[in-house]
Amino acid sequence: MKRESVKVAVTGAAGQIGYAILFRLASGEIFGHHTKISLHLLEITPALKALEGVVMELHDCAFPLLDNIIVTDNAETAFDGVNWALLIGSKPRTKGMERGELIRENGPIFTGQGNALNKAAADARVLVVGNPANTNCLIATKNSDLPAERFAAMTRLDQNRAYAQLAQKAGVPVTAVSNVTIWGNHSATQYPDAENAKINGRPAMDVITDHNWLRGEFISVVQKRGAAIIEARGLSSAASAASAALDHVKSMESATPAGHWFSAGVLSDGSYGVAKGLNFSFPLASDGQGGYEIVQGLPLSNFAREKIKLTEAELEEEKAVVADLL
Question: Which domains does the chain have, with CATH numbers?
Answer without folding.
Answer: 5-153 (3.40.50.720), 156-325 (3.90.110.10)
